[in-house]
Amino acid sequence: MVPDTPDRLDDDIDAGIVRAVSHDARATLAELSAAVGLSVSAVQARLRKLETRGVITGYRALVDAESVGKPLAAFVEITPLDPGQPDNAPELLEHLAEIEACHSIAGDSAYMLLVRVASPRHLETLIRAIRSAASVNTHTTVVLQTFYENRPILPA
Predict the structure, then answer these.
(1) Between the CA of residue 83 and those of 12, 36, 136, what are the distances in Å?
(2) In the chain, which end has fewer C-beta atoms inside a 10 angstrom radius, N or C?
(3) Which CATH number is 66-142 given?
(4) Which stretches within 24-152 are classed as H helix?
(5) What is the pTM of this model?
(6) Span 33-61, pLDDT tens digits
C-alpha cells in the first residue's frame, strides 16, 4: 500500500513557515511571525494546518551520537537470501534500536540501513542480528567522518 502524500504548500507564506521551522524547530511563534510577516495568531493557525495536513510531520531533538555512546555509523545494504521470500525486512528489523533509518533502494540491494553503534564489535554483533532476523546478505560501509547530515528540508 502506498502511503498518502501530503498536500503541497498553499503559498509562499506556508513555504516561509516550513523553511523557518526546518532551520529551527524551536522557533517561537513570534519569531515565525517576524520571519513571514503575519500576526502570531495567523502563524499559529497556519502552523496547525501544516501539521494537520501532514506537511510538518513532527519535531525532534538532534542528538550527538558520540555523546550518547554511539560514535560508529555505518551503511548496511541488505539483499534477501532467497529472492522469492516475502519483502518484509523493514518489519523484521524494526526491533533493532541501532538501526536509525531503513530505505528501500534501487539497484542490487533491496534496502539501505543507517546504523549507529558503540564499537566495531557492536557493529559485528548487529550485522549478525540483521542477517539472522531477516534472512539477508549484507554489505557494510563504515562511515569515517560525517561532514553534514540532518540538513533542513526546504520547500522547492
Answers:
(1) 46, 51, 10
(2) N
(3) 3.30.70.920
(4) 29-36, 40-52, 89-93, 120-134
(5) 0.84
(6) 999 999 999 999 999 999 999 999 999 99
